[in-house]
Amino acid sequence: MKENDRQVKQITPKSEDFSKWYIELVQKAELADYTPMKGMMVIRPHGYAIWENIQRLLDARIKASGHVNAYFPLFIPEGFLKKEAEHVEGFSPEVAWVTIGGKEELEERLAVRPTSEAIIGHMYARWIKSWRDLPVLINQWANIVRWEKVTRPFLRTTEFLWQEGHTCHETAEEGEAETLKILELYRDFCETELAIPVLSGRKSLREKFAGAQMTYAIEALMSDGKALQMGTSHNLGQHFSKAFDIKFEDRGQTLQYVWQTSWGMTTRTIGALIMVHGDDSGLRFPPRIAPVQAVLIPISVGAWKETVLPTVRAAAEALRAAGLRVEVDAREEATPGWKFSEYEMRGVPLRIEIGPRDVKSGQAVLVRRDTREKEIVPLAALPARVPEVLEAIQARLFADAKSFLDANIRDAADYAGFKDILENNRGFIRAPWCGGEECEDRIKAETMATIRVMPIDEAESRTDAPCVCCGRPGKALAFFARSY
Ligand SMILES: [Zn+2]
Fold first, then answer.
1. d(CA 87, CA 427)
2. What span, in angstroms and rounded, lies between the C-alpha atoms of 257 and 335?
3. SS3 for 209?
4. Which residues surround ligand 1, an ion (CB under 5 A)?
5. I need a labelling partner for 320 at 20 to 30 A (CA). Which of 83, 114, 282, 474 fits?
6. How far is the CA of 198 from the centre of ligand 1 (A)?
7. pLDDT per residue as tens digits for the range 55-79
8. Alpha carbon distance 324, 310 (integer Å)
């Protein structure tokens, strides 16, 4: 390979400047681009293909667990948002409003949905009359607008894409069970499909969703040591059903308010894929989610179009027939070396090289994106061997991320130790907390760390050790981190 082939698309090394590395990678791998509107990005085809795979795999799980999809309006009347006091207070700083339609000033402002509890609550009040109408298990795939001050592609943008589930149940127990079932669905999705290990648990009241009774979340650790919330599942209790008057006649013919949940996962997960798996050469997509799982590159020597290309195309066909997502790059204007670094940048898990000598000996060279290991495989064995290698890559990416996560959960016994870990290591800090918001506030102000999650099982998180901040008796062991 010529030296300048490698120079085509260099990015700042991750260790040198993580956020510069991230931004350059997003652009050079053509995942997203900036627009003239501050905080709004275009998700380019390569990035959108990832989102489509996330949607396809997550949607299948949501449906398999009994939910159905629907679509609700983009606009929400101001009066609806105001019905749940905590909800409007939490979201109002970032709501975009429509005040004029055509040339007419509207009588009531319309919010561009920052989340859909309000409009969905209004509709549920019309649809639910009896216990026979329950449970309601609806999910929606939609876009959301939150007017953010500081933005970063995929991680925080004014408009983003997500799914939001909104369910109604007969009892508090069923509502809680649904909330935890979805939390577990999200955990399994992240770990199995995205190869991203997570901590799952409950949020503190300060960090919960505006209007929820209890918020649960899964949190992942990015390779710069900062946490990223990957998904949330809220037990809404009866907060919204009381505000929106969603009542049903129960089995004993008494009118009751329904018990609700809501839960969401967003295009942020693409940011996590980049930050957990990416390296100095670019993206490394887990095969299960990668738009292209293997790229076949003919080595262009001599009359390669006649001698090599037909074999490459036949190998690609055999792999497609085996159910794999593969591409052939037969472009003449690019050298094989240029193509190698291009697909490394784009995160394609496996490269398959075939040159004139390989054709003669009936073989191909496989090069793994994760370890760069090479393996020579007979052409006839490709449809059997490639899926095995892809599975090994998926497992390896998860194992690497898991050992990074495990190595970066540290215990802090006192505040000095807590600060020291944040200064020198970052990652998650497990520490006793007294349950007081003033300690959460002080820790956040002084260290920029917040409580990401606490174990769901209160018995498991109970502690007698003194609070890491104030020294009063601790109530729970909490996982703290700086986060995106
Ligand atoms: Zn305290």
1. 31
2. 66
3. coil
4. 434, 436, 439, 467, 469-470
5. 282
6. 26
7. 999 999 999 999 999 999 999 999 9
8. 19
